[in-house]
């Protein structure tokens, strides 16, 4: 990377993606063309065989589910392909389309060409998956300055003020994946001490479980309900999930036009199995790091699904301390990637040396 060239940080998420840049001594989130800080990691083909990415594609998950794909990041490193129109697309090619869209948004916002990028990836990504991220970036006309592990990026956003040893537990529950990582700060170096998770578990699974409950209340069979109607129920449950209280009403539009009340006790039962899987991973990562809960100095929540009260309370019970929810759980990884993308040493940024 040429030193004077501006670089950006990207969180290429399974459900949503975000971009940030280091300017004026701080990480700045870059909005997309719709003025939003999160871009759905969704690709669709319209009736004119034009590819749509982001918000335009997301809106078609309900209206055109057969021509819309999401969560393809899960299948990097596999042979899986997706059919859009008459053409097959690999996960690499779909990720490249998202990266290309993010690049375009950054160039409009920053009013200059962008080529250099730091991309955050899950800690569990193997060499093949990391290489495919590089390939996706090349297809998007981007040069990867560095790949950084997502939990390290999250910790970086919090550790700039620290000069002493520190242990973080990063609990990252996004829409499509779950990771829990113990990161240690020692002698100016952030290091992953242990990591585990479930690559097939995320906030969408909580929505899906709620959708099953709703369908049971409506006595609907998922095998006979049209895909567009299933998508509609999922979207309604997703919106309701974000605003749950002790008793929540799920208002279903046509063709049902019904109101379903979900109590707190019912919600705990609906999500019991998912919460148990999360709790087991927290126990496992502490065991793998040879630590006890009392050894954790700071608990950081990352990912939009950590806003769910039931998830937050479960982690608090497991670790035995209150955690810090990121100032925006959806954006903190992109902000950490932006710090690295600055091209400056962290010593220049914050007055002390910190390697990542």
TrEMBL record:
Gene3D superfamilies: 3.30.420.40, Actin, Chain A, domain 4. It comes from the Bacteria. The keyword Transferase does not apply. GO terms for molecular function: ATP binding; ATP-dependent protein folding chaperone. Keywords: ATP-binding, Chaperone, Nucleotide-binding. InterPro entries: ATPase_NBD, Heat_shock_70_CS, Hsp_70_fam. PROSITE patterns: HSP70_1, HSP70_2. SUPFAM superfamilies: Actin-like ATPase domain. PANTHER family: HEAT SHOCK PROTEIN 70KDA. Belongs to the heat shock protein 70 family. This is Chaperone protein HscC. It comes from Vibrio mangrovi.
